[in-house]
Amino acid sequence: MIKISKPLRFHIITLFKEVCEPYVTTSIIGRAQKEKRIEVVYQNPRDFVSNAYGKVDERPYGGGPGMVLQAIPIVRAVEHTLRRRLTPKKKAVLIWLTPGGADFTNTIATKLTSYDDIVLISGRYEGVDERALRMLKTLLPVRKYSTGNYTLTGGELPAMAIIDAVTRRIKGVPGNDTSIEERRIASREIYTRPEIIKWKGKSYRVPKVLTTGNHAHIDAWKKRKQ
Q: What is d(CA 9, CA 113) in angstroms, rounded to the nearest whole number?
């Protein structure tokens, strides 16, 4: 587990801060913020448009349904959120959330704990003008990730998933290193007390091996259930 001496900062570029706040201020992620192990900051692309209506989207070239987020408000939002937080010695990365990106994994989550600043682009509607990606690559390294083979209405949920996966790998956040499942033998089936549950005339029992105290047999069972 990686130990850090200063907060790892997550910068969320989003139109809907209110979607993210309830999750990142609750439970383990919320506690990590209170303990200054991480910091979550937001930047709204609407703050960087020149029109009077806060309009950040336009119709796609080439036709098709929906609207596309314009490049310049996204790029300016990233520039602004990093301007007062980065020095040449700090390590930053931008995560471009897209269904066509590489699969986000536990290994990637662990590697991301080595960064000082992680910028997450949370797109909406039909997505973000691809030219924003080309411009942002001139500012900092970019990684394109997908959190699953599905389509959502926005990038906020994938951003929360990445923040969660990265944060729980920071030393002291889960409270116990063995809470990280991939660092121990973990089964996809888990049980707790009582040993027998009676429900509508039937008895539902914990697998007998888990009650024996024989750790070798228990580990073998867990491996079969992985």
A: 10
The enclosing H or E element of 13 equals strand 8-13
- 40 Cβ neighbours under 8 A, 6+ residues apart: 9, 10, 12, 20, 24, 33, 163
What digits encode the pLDDT tens for the residues 151-173? 898 999 999 999 999 999 998 89
Instruction: Kindly report the number of other CB atoms within 10 A of residue 151's CB atom.
Output: 6
Question: Rounded CA gap, 44 and 121, in Å?
Answer: 11
Within this chain, do residues 26 and 85 fall inside the same structural domain, yes or no? yes
Question: What rounded mean pLDDT belongs to the chain?
Answer: 89
Q: Is 107 exposed, middle or buried (0-12, 13-18, 19+ CB in 10 A)?
A: exposed
Domain check: are 167 and 193 in the same one? no
3-state class of 56 per DSSP?
coil
User: Where does residue 36 fall: left (phi above 0), alpha (psi -120 to 50 degrees), or beta otherwise?
Assistant: left
Question: If pLDDT is split at 50, 70 and 90, which confidence band does 211 have?
Answer: very high
Please compute the mean of the pLDDT values over residues 20-45 and round it to a whole number.
Answer: 95
Q: Read off the pTM.
A: 0.85
What does the pLDDT average to over 193-197? 94
Asked, for residue 1, whether it belongs to a domain, the answer is no
Q: Are residues 194 and 172 in the same domain?
A: no
If you write DSSP's letter for every residue of 61-75 in order, what string do you get?
TT--SS-EE-HHHHH
Closest of 122, 31, 8 to residue 73, by C-alpha: 122
